[in-house]
Amino acid sequence: MLRCNVMDMADRQIWRLIPQHLPYKLVGMLVRKHPQARKRRSRDPERTRERLLQAAFREIYRSGFQSASLDTILATAGVTKGALYYHFDSKEALGYAVVEEVIAPDVRETWLRPLERGKDPVDALIGIVQGISVRPEDVRGGCQLNNLAQEMSPLDAGFRKRLAMVFHAWREGVADALREGQTHGSVRRDVEPADAAGLLIAMVEGYGSLAKNAQDPKVMRAGIRNIVGWLLSLRPPGNRKRG
Fold this sequence. Notes:
With 243 residues, the protein is mostly helical. Helix 3 crosses helix 6 (91-117), helix 9 (144-152) packs across helix 10 and helix 11 packs antiparallel against helix 12 (217-232). It has two domains: 44-88, Arc Repressor Mutant, subunit A (Orthogonal Bundle); 91-232, Tetracycline Repressor, domain 2, CATH 1.10.357. The protein is built from twelve helices and no strands. It is elongated, with a radius of gyration of 28 Å. Mean pLDDT is 85; it is low at 1-42.
């Protein structure tokens, strides 16, 4: 009871300090504060752009670029058509950005960063290849980079140029790592790094296409085993430990 009485007295003292014409205005301001904060956050242009890119990436992966639905992308991203065209002039511009800002960074993170961090390029490449997903849903969908190259390179120069840049950076990154391996004795001297890098990409994408066509993860698993065996052959004789 004492605590209640003390609180009642304190409340009465505070209430006397507040002008009596303000209570409803103060309450209204407090109620409106959080929705306004949420509204400001929802209008963050960078977050909106990122949501659009991720939604477009998923829709293109599911349906292909030509069949990708802008309405589905907008619904997934939770933005308006006006927001879409604020950031991208056209569906093609959105697709180009997906290549440059989603697919290209994914290739760098998956293939090139581990090569930069690793001491032995063959070990690093074996680890990357063995990490390729063989989940049925990933096998069914295939590689987004290869999917877009197959679909759009014959039709659109903008896609063709951007996709070629991704493939080129991938190939050059692997080739540079193999050259570095040659200087340290972990890669055979007679290996041509650029050719080996191109062959590796062709095998990865080729087996991915075969597995997608068969809709069978076993095809990709067999491909991974064969690629790992080939990578081991890049080592100098006497240094071909199992992957």
